[in-house]
Automatic annotation (TrEMBL):
Domain Fe2OG dioxygenase: 196-297, 575-676
Region (Disordered): 507-528
A Pfam family of this chain: DIOX_N
Taxon lineage: Eukaryota, Viridiplantae, Streptophyta, Embryophyta, Tracheophyta
Protein name, entry field: Fe2OG dioxygenase domain-containing protein
InterPro entries to which the protein is assigned, alphabetical: DIOX_N, IPNS-like_FE2OG_OXY, IPNS-like_sf, Oxoglu/Fe-dep_dioxygenase_dom
Protein's organism: Centaurea solstitialis (yellow star-thistle)
PROSITE patterns named among the record's database cross-references: FE2OG_OXY (PS51471)
Gene Ontology molecular-function annotations: dioxygenase activity; metal ion binding; oxidoreductase activity, acting on paired donors, with incorporation or reduction of molecular oxygen
């Protein structure tokens, strides 16, 4: 699918706002009473009530304990993946055409805009009898059969087995819906007992470079009776909430099915239940698979409001129409321009009636927090300490824009050619990035990908352990290195757990923050027993990234018109550099909490490895917007910290950033904090100041500063939380700085 060519571009009013409203979402219904014969009759009644509420208020619901074996679904998902993994040429061997609409295709459109996906359709009854043409008077029929690909060989069997299971579920759901309309349980059965036109679709949504412009499936309603959707853990389905028209993201829940009533049930129920608009968002990082089962009646079915559901006060709202003709028209419209037919055509008169349920329409409803608290997650519960003040909550708008600059470091690796020009270019790029963003990404940086991957997987193994195990290497006042899970930024708890280790072993630090206390203390690392490889993998990684850190310091020196080695002496001995392993578990209220609250880095330089999940946001200097840093495989994200701000006398500024969390995927990241020796006195470099540009900061002692920060995590100190602002010369003090000082009690 490659690039987002103009056929994928939605009209502006239909583009995903990338507003992910997760809220409580669509109702979740437990079907246990249907599969457990010992359930009391009242449990089934209860279930029917839930189905009625869900169909009326949402048109959508999720079911669990549905009786479909997980293996059946997983086998089909795996076979679908194997099928789509093939080259296009292979897949097109089973391409659908006008003669047979079953098979593969990659050019589906919804409302004339191309969908970012490829699909493979399989019909359930073999053969499926359909009208040959949409012409009302033409009674000729045609038989659809399936086109099975050679590869993967198991696809056919996996599909056939899955269909059997889902069909059983579909009948149970029809019974529940019948009962919920006060009809006999088997009221809908005759429409489906013979010559069903049901089919299943395997959907593949590849990662999309412009998820803000395209959709996986544009907004639409399902024309048939019932849809039973299996989706993977990526998610993308959005449902238009009836109360307020908001697009609600359907949070993937393992092993549930998402059910929605289609146009046929809307007509049969005479608008008691409405078919609801939905769409599929795509994302730039992960492919997604989903499998809808579309339950459809025999082609000769005449669809009209059921007699039991109409009376004098509530007359039929639709004229009757022939399902097969309707379906044939729809299918054909994919090949030819037809006068397309929608159910509205059969509606007698438009009657506007909207269900209003104010309790569901407020996304800030406290029940969101409540449900998050009661949901189990890797970190336990979202207790109120995680809740950010409203003005600091991640705005769900994800601005990907161009983002921070990407800098190719290959001129540094290429020592053979006389590449003075490309080094000059590189220095200029670094200068622009530091000045305009304070952040940049580097590629071709020379750190072997294996070293980073080994570190990431050891990190995962460490955090996968029980809290009890991890707390065996918990940091404490005696040693600030090790595991902890109660980090706070600006007094709000961060949704993460971390493991810190130091690079110089041991690292020498001042014993106390008291300015006159000259004593020092040596900190070793605390290595856990498990995973056994963690220590070695960390030490290897450190060696590699340290080389990169010196190269970056040289580039930054050069970019400030200083000699390449100007900053080296601060780091050549007794560095206080340390590395943090971060684990951000999925968070059920990503609109309320942050992985790390907004802050600036106090050290010299940060070199961050992040995985493919993403979450880092940087405050753009030009307009203060939070910009999402899109994960780039194997790149490092670099930012200058407060120390470089001071050394450069504000030529470069340390920029605020924060970390968003999400509800579906855990995230790992590893920042490497480059810090000088503890006895370093930080002040603007002499070369960076002159008469017209005097030093903007007083000198301060790095070790004392660092210890003050570290200790403030354990005790209330009698000093205000320390910030470089404190060393800024008074004439420069602005009201913002004063506000920050007061706010930043703990960083
Ligand atoms: Fe749909
Ligand atoms: Fe940071």
């Amino acid at each position: 699918m490659g690039e987002v060519d103009p056929t994928f571009i939605q009209d502006p009013q239909h583009r995903p706002k990338l507003v992910v409203t997760e809220a409580r979402g669509i109702p979740q219904i437990d079907l246990t009473p249907l599969i457990d014969p010992s359930s009391p009759a009242t449990a089934v009644e209860d279930l029917v009530d839930q189905v009625r509420d869900a169909c009326r208020d949402w048109g959508f619901f999720q079911v669990f304990n549905h009786g479909i074996p997980l293996q059946s679904r997983e086998r089909l998902m795996a076979a679908a993946k194997r099928f789509f993994d093939q080259p296009l040429e292979e897949k097109r061997k089973v391409r659908r055409d006008e003669a047979n609409p079953q098979g593969y295709y990659d050019t589906e459109h919804t409302k004339n805009v191309r969908d970012w996906k490829e699909v493979f359709d399989i019909t359930v009854e073999v053969p499926t009898v359909m009208y040959a043409s949409p012409e009302p008077d033409d009674q000729q029929t045609t038989h659809y059969i399936n086109q099975w690909p050679d590869h993967p060989p198991e696809l056919r069997e996996a599909c056939e087995e899955y269909v059997k299971d889902v069909q059983k579920l579909s009948y149970k759901l029809l019974e529940l819906i019948s009962l919920s309309l006060n009809l006999p349980a088997n009221r809908f059965e005759p429409f489906f007992s013979k010559d069903q036109t049901s089919f299943i679709r395997l959907n593949h949504y590849p990662p999309c470079p412009a998820p803000d412009l395209a959709l996986g499936v544009g907004r639409h309603k399902d024309a048939l009776a019932l849809t039973i959707l299996a989706q993977d853990d990526v998610g993308g389905l959005e449902v238009k909430r009836k109360t307020d028209g908001e697009w609600i993201f359907v949070n993937p829940t393992p092993n549930t099915f998402i059910i929605n009533v289609g146009d046929l049930i809307q007509v049969w129920s005479n608008d008691r239940y409405e078919s609801v608009e939905h769409r599929v968002m795509v994302n730039s990082a992960r492919e997604r698979f989903s499998i809808p089962f579309f339950l459809s009646p025999a082609h000769y079915t005449m669809v009209e409001p059921l007699a039991e559901l109409i009376d004098e006060h509530n007359p039929a709202k639709y004229k009757s129409y022939n399902w097969g003709k309707f379906f044939a028209t729809r299918k054909r419209s994919n090949f030819k321009k037809l006068n397309s037919t929608f159910i509205n055509k059969f509606k007698h008169k438009t009657s506007s009636h909207h269900l209003l349920n104010p309790s569901l329409s407020d996304p800030k409803n406290p029940s969101i927090i409540h449900s998050a608290i009661h949901h189990h997650s890797a970190m336990g519960e979202l207790d109120p300490t995680f809740i950010q003040e409203p003005q600091h909550r991640p705005k769900p708008a994800v601005i990907q824009a161009h983002g921070i600059p990407q800098i190719d470091l290959s001129p540094l690796l290429d020592s053979t050619s006389a590449n003075a020009n490309s080094i000059e270019d590189l220095v200029a790029e670094v200068c622009d990035a530091c000045k305009n963003w304070g952040f940049f990404q580097v590629i071709n940086h020379g750190v072997p990908i294996e070293s980073r991957e080994r570190l990431m997987s050891a990190t995962k193994r460490f955090f996968d352990q029980t809290t009890e195990e991890k707390r065996k290497v918990r940091r404490d006042e005696a040693n600030p290195f090790g595991y902890y899970d109660t980090e706070h930024t600006k007094n709000v708890r961060d949704w993460k757990e971390v493991f810190d280790f130091t690079v110089e072993v041991p690292t020498t630090m001042p014993t106390s923050h008291e300015p006159d206390d000259e004593r020092t203390i040596e900190y070793p690392n605390q290595w856990p027993q498990h995973p056994p490889e963690l220590r070695e993998v960390c030490e290897e990684y450190v060696k590699e990234v340290q080389k990169l850190s010196f190269k970056l310091l040289e580039l930054i020196s050069l970019s400030l018109n200083l000699p390449a080695n100007r900053l080296e002496p601060f780091f050549s001995k007794d560095q206080t550099t340390f590395v943090r392993l971060n684990h951000y578990p999925p968070c059920l209220a990503p609109d309320l909490a942050l992985g790390v609250g907004r802050h600036k880095d106090a050290g010299a330089l940060t070199i961050l490895a992040q995985d493919d999940v993403g979450g880092l946001e940087v405050k753009r200097k030009t307009d203060g917007e939070w910009i999402f840093v899109k994960p780039t495989p194997n790149a490092f994200i670099i930012n200058v910290g407060d120390i470089i701000q001071v050394w450069s006398n504000d030529a470069y500024e340390s920029v605020e950033h924060r970390v968003r969390v999400n509800s579906t995927r855990e995230r790992f990241s590893v920042p490497f904090f480059v810090n000088p020796a503890h006895y370093t006195v930080v002040e603007p470099l002499a070369e960076m100041t002159n008469e017209r540009n005097p030093a903007k900061y007083k000198a301060y002692n790095w070790g004392k500063f660092f210890v003050t920060r570290k200790l403030s995590n354990f005790k209330k100190l009698d000093v205000e939380n320390i910030q470089i602002y404190h060393f800024k010369k008074p004439k420069e003090l602005k009201i913002d700085d004063v506000v920050s000082r007061v706010e930043n009690l703990v960083v």
